[in-house]
Amino acid sequence: MSMFPTLPEDGEPTRGTLHAYAHAVAALPRAHAAVHPLWWHVSLRVRPDGFVTEAMPLPDGGAAFVRMDPRNHLVVFETSGGGSRSFPMNAGLTATEMGNALIAAGSEFGLSADYDRSKFANDDPRPYDVGDASGLFDALVAAEGALTVQRNRLEGPVGPIQLWPHGFDLAFEWFGSRVVPTAEGGESNDLRAQINLGFYPAGDAYFYSNPWPFEADLLLDVDLPGGAEWHTEGWEGSILLYAEVVDRADGVDRFLTYAAAVFEAASPGLMR
Q1: Any idea where the domains of the chain sit in the sequence?
Q2: Phi/psi zone of residue 180: left (φ > 0), alpha (ψ -120 to 50 degrees), beta?
């Protein structure tokens, strides 16, 4: 695999815009895609032509998709029948304007729902640098490729690699056999133990892994390789700063060594 590329030095305003627009994009599959119990239907997938939603069935047949295209700097509503409506990401549109434009495009092709507009309600004009957007896309494509290598090494139930609009992070889940009783909103619920492995491109960008449940007494004494550390402030898991792997010939190998080490340490506790 190629090296992890450098992230744009001043790319946070543009990353913030992509994040805001991702919330607007996700409002449509949230309402129209086939519902997944783990909310996979609201996430995006990294593809060579951008970040793409799940398929949304159209009333007259076929399906629609929304694609964020950081190469051509467009958000595109498109259908399997060839219909298309495009909206520029570098025109300063607010997240509210982008979301409303996408909903209007969907209505042209028969999509209608009570959309949760609170997910993208933001009236601040959005800055966007085309070079920074391309650089962020390159980093997410590289991260998706490295995550795919680790994902393909694992046996057992594993989820797709997803770009989550909520945090604008890229991750997948591996599920253990352990079932954990939980209570949320006064209702009991049994959840499968799992490990998330992902990439967060904001600020001091980092790869992360979140074993759940987090067995601190078993994990915190395990030394992680390549500059990785356990993380317990705010969230529990492990972290490998992107700076430890970026622009290094062995960067992907260092990441994969880290990912394998966390899995080796955490997976036994998720199988009992």
Answers
A1: 12-119, 130-270
A2: beta
**Residue 141 burial (CB count, 10 A):** 17
- The alpha helices in the chain, defined as continuous H runs, are 12-32, 95-108, 130-153, 216-219, 251-266
Three-class SS of residue 65?
strand
How far is Cα 71 from Cα 50, in angstroms, rounded to an integer?
7
What is the model's pTM? 0.94
| Integer angstrom CA distances of residue 38 from 34, 52, 147, 160 | 12, 18, 20, 12
Q: Dump pLDDT digits (tens) for 28-69.
A: 999 999 999 999 999 999 999 999 999 999 999 999 999 999
Local structure of 27: helix, strand or coil = helix
Helix (H/G/I), strand (E/B), else coil: 101: helix
Which of 142, 174, 150, 173 lies closest to 260 in space, CA to CA? Answer: 150
Structure-token pair, residue 191: 């959840």
Closest among 261, 258, 180 to 4, alpha carbons compared: 258
